[in-house]
Specification:
- This protein is mostly helical.
- 53% of the residues lie in helices and 6% in strands.
- It contains 21 helices and 9 strands.
- Helix 9 runs antiparallel to helix 14 and helix 11 crosses helix 14.
- The protein is elongated, with a radius of gyration of 26 Å.
Amino acid sequence: MKYNPSLIKEVTLDGQSLVFEEFIAAARFRAHVKANPAALERMRKSRELAEKIQKENRVAYGITTGFGDFQNVAVPEELSNQLSTNLILSHCTATGEPYSDEVVRGIMLLRANNLLVGVSGVRPLLVEIMVDMLNKNVLPVIPQKGSLGSSGDLAPLAHMTLPILGLGEAKYNGEVLPGAEAMKRAGIRTVPTLLCKEGLGMTNGTCAMTSAGALACYDSICAAEMADIIASMTFEGLTGLKNAFDPRIHQYRGHKGQIVVAANMRLLLEGSEILDNCQQDRVQDAYSLRCIPQVHGAVRDALQYVIEKVNIELNAVTDNPLLFLEDEAVVSGGNFHGEPMALPFDLLGIAAAEIADISERRIERMVNAALSNGLTPFLTTQPGVNSGFMIVQYAAASMVSENKIYAHPASVDSIPSSANQEDIVSMGTTAARKAKSIVENTLDVLALELLTACQAIDIRRHLNTHGQGLTPFHQHIYDAVRKEVPFYETDQEIWPIIRTMEAFIRRKDLLDLVDLYMPEMLDNNAWGQVRSLNWPEIIVDKK
């Protein structure tokens, strides 16, 4: 891929400049993490202000008062540290299966980066401990369920904090241990207690939803790019009509994603003997072929919006209250509220589901002899005794149907909490988690489509109705697939073949082939960075 997070080996956090691909590099690919010294100094000054407020016994939420509906309960100075620690002990209520290692790494990375802005009143020591944990692979065990997405991801972040106190559970190099033991083995110090304001600083925030959602967004970007490639393979197997990608059509609609996908399809389909021999077969194709730019392009435009929001949230301060050095003010607000991410992550799930929706329809067209423009029923050479790819479509349909359930927006729901003090919540963490489930299904559907497309191409070549020649790039893809799985001629255990293709998709091998053989393919400015794209020129084929 042109922007490949796996190539980034070190990420420096300063609370201001973390970008999407750096987040992925550290969360998924374990890039080394550093804290900027100037940012640590900002934290130190903020911490001094928190201690001053505590000693002066000023009324300040979470420093000299209780939390939530206990905001009117005064807490004396001698108990304010216990107040912060008790927040962690009482809030670690999450349940269910733990988050994956990469999501946990992302949660810690984001909490550290947010605190480094220097308006949270938290000691630099806590960030230094989290950075050390990231680099030494000590990962808190954080159950996935239990966050309302306001006041931030309270329960998940409380679990994240436990090992810093020598409590809870943590993985060390993959082994689940008591938190204190994991930290001891890694040679990382723990703290006996949090100090005033630190409980809020560690737990108020959108780190869990942003981490899970950002990783799902990365996989959705990859899925969107692979969807163009796989759809073009299917298009050749089904002898599609290329006039649907005429640049004039897409110029007059004007959506950037659509223009990009149409340009990609023209590039991907250039030089095909099979397609050159079928362009007079029909007037137009079904939507799942003809409308690839409109559907895939809309997905890309949606993903672009999600990336923009993620890039903002990576450097956002999401705890409460905030401390401002210039006038020593302590200001209560609602930056912990997850709504700015809940809506994008709901949209992310819908967009990823649409990739699978249209992919499954293309699978159906390949296996259905009434729709396949001359291919054999269920892509078998010996029908009747062999079922061929009949149930491959069933599997895809099942996952697409499941995605429709997951795609219901979480952000439209709210349940009041804390005696109605927290009376409208985002459910953004649920939105992020289900987006991840959707994109996993979508990747599997794409794997099934690629497997089916290669089978369809083999059948088309055996029939020899339109010649033998694929596009040069498709031949590279075909060869790569056939190195992994053979032509499916007679029924056999098909699940190992499917697992192989699922792994092939997740390794992003298709995107590596693009970099090698089709570098001129466009993405829709997917990384939030300005590519040297001149939009008026994109609609013209480059010969």
